[in-house]
Amino acid sequence: MDKIMDLIAQEEKYQNETIRLIPSENFTSENVKKALASDLTNKYAEGYPGKRYYQGNKIVDEIENLAIERGKKLLGVEHLNVQAYSGSPANSAVLMALVEPGEKICGMKLNAGGHLTHGHPKITFSGKFFNSVQYDVDVEGRIDYEKLRELVVAEKPKLIFAGTTAYPWILDWEKFAKVADEVGAWLVADISHIAGLIVGGVHPSPVPYVHIVTSTTHKSLRGPRGAIIGVTKKGLDRDIDLAKKIDRAVFPGLQGGPHINSIAAMAVAFEEASGEDFKKYAEQIVKNAKVLADTLREGGLKVFGTENHLMVVDVGLERGKEVAVELEEAGIIVNANTIPHDMGSPFKPSGIRMGTPAMTTKGYVEADFVALGVKIADIVKR
Ligand SMILES: Cc1ncc(COP(=O)(O)O)c(C=O)c1O
């Protein structure tokens, strides 16, 4: 057998035998995996349904159109692009569509819980080619919306990202919208982490408040790796050509042929996420996260959060990586993470980040997370 097949089998076994608490990970359904592993991976389809640069795309067009229709309905947006290869290319496409190089953009600081693609300075595409200003969180790790307003009014960015990667609180879309509207900025909600919670009805939707929604499809939404870019009614009201601009930025602006197997898998995941079972799943994710956070607190740890699927735990100055390794040795997979106003650095952070989407998929309920929380607190305090 090819060595790679053996390694895949080993990894599958490892994933199923360990406790997966990385909040951006999940276990997809068999049908999502079937779509990903299908012959759709063989097909080239540059362009969009009905306007392809390659022949032989009749069925592929139907697949992409179905993914688009299902996704639009699920999120409640007017237009949906399903071709971005992943979350980072989706955010890059939005920047390419709406901001010129050197113009000002605004996003949350990385160590406050923001994402690299939201303008992290110097080392990223978004921080290198745009003039980035960044907002922070307070001592509890919550966005200070008044300070955000002061920053935005002073700096007048052309585009604001509202969205997070390590933020345990509910996002107040209305407050973001007020700030953005005051200076006429584009408002982009990056719901990569919380998409599953939003469509499951346990986190408010940004759609009425923002111009654009971006999201990965592989986190709490439980689909394949990939991303979507939605244009809202508010977005189209501001610019009737917004959908066209987004589509052109994805192709031919940034990408070539779309990954049709991923798009088919998205269509599967969107259908799965629209059912009653998924609502129950989303509710359970949040219940489980609360129980885990409470148990860790009872165990003597400082926990940031939680109102959503994740929490950040203070494990002592610069101890994040060491604790994550110790947990890995105990079969518990988490990631080291900065805590709000960390005195360490991204390379030597003082926290760990944990979330419940993956283990909730595996059937974990509150009692399982109490037992797990006790075990984690013991390991952290060793
Ligand atoms: C908020 C947010 N946006 C974008 C991304 C980027 O997604 P990808 O890793 O698929 O490029 C992530 C990934 O962690 C994220 O959390």
TrEMBL record:
E.C. number: 2.1.2.1
Record key words, sorted: Amino-acid biosynthesis, Cytoplasm, Methyltransferase, One-carbon metabolism, Pyridoxal phosphate, Transferase
An MF annotation (GO) of this entry: glycine hydroxymethyltransferase activity
Cofactor(s) the record lists: pyridoxal 5'-phosphate
UniProt subcellular location: Cytoplasm
Domain Serine hydroxymethyltransferase-like residue range list: 3-373
Positions contributing to (6S)-5,6,7,8-tetrahydrofolate binding: L110, G114, H115, L116, S345, P346, F347
Record's catalysed reaction(s): (6R)-5,10-methylene-5,6,7,8-tetrahydrofolate + glycine + H2O = (6S)-5,6,7,8-tetrahydrofolate + L-serine
Pfam families linked: SHMT
Pathway(s) per entry: One-carbon metabolism; tetrahydrofolate interconversion; Amino-acid biosynthesis; glycine biosynthesis; glycine from L-serine: step 1/1
GO cellular component terms attached to this protein's record: cytosol
An example Gene Ontology biological process: glycine biosynthetic process from serine
Residues the record lists as N6-(pyridoxal phosphate)lysine modifications: K219
Domain of life the protein comes from: Bacteria
UniProt cross-references to InterPro entries, sorted A to Z: PyrdxlP-dep_Trfase, PyrdxlP-dep_Trfase_major, PyrdxlP-dep_Trfase_small, Ser_HO-MeTrfase, Ser_HO-MeTrfase-like, Ser_HO-MeTrfase_PLP_BS, SHMT-like_dom
UniProt site positions, description: Plays an important role in substrate specificity: H218
Transmembrane stretches, start-end: none
Principal location: cytoplasm
Entry-linked HAMAP family: SHMT
Subunit structure: Homodimer.
Similarity section: Belongs to the SHMT family.
Function: Catalyzes the reversible interconversion of serine and glycine with tetrahydrofolate (THF) serving as the one-carbon carrier. This reaction serves as the major source of one-carbon groups required for the biosynthesis of purines, thymidylate, methionine, and other important biomolecules. Also exhibits THF-independent aldolase activity toward beta-hydroxyamino acids, producing glycine and aldehydes, via a retro-aldol mechanism.
Full protein name: Serine hydroxymethyltransferase
Organism, scientific name: Candidatus Shapirobacteria bacterium GW2011_GWE1_38_10
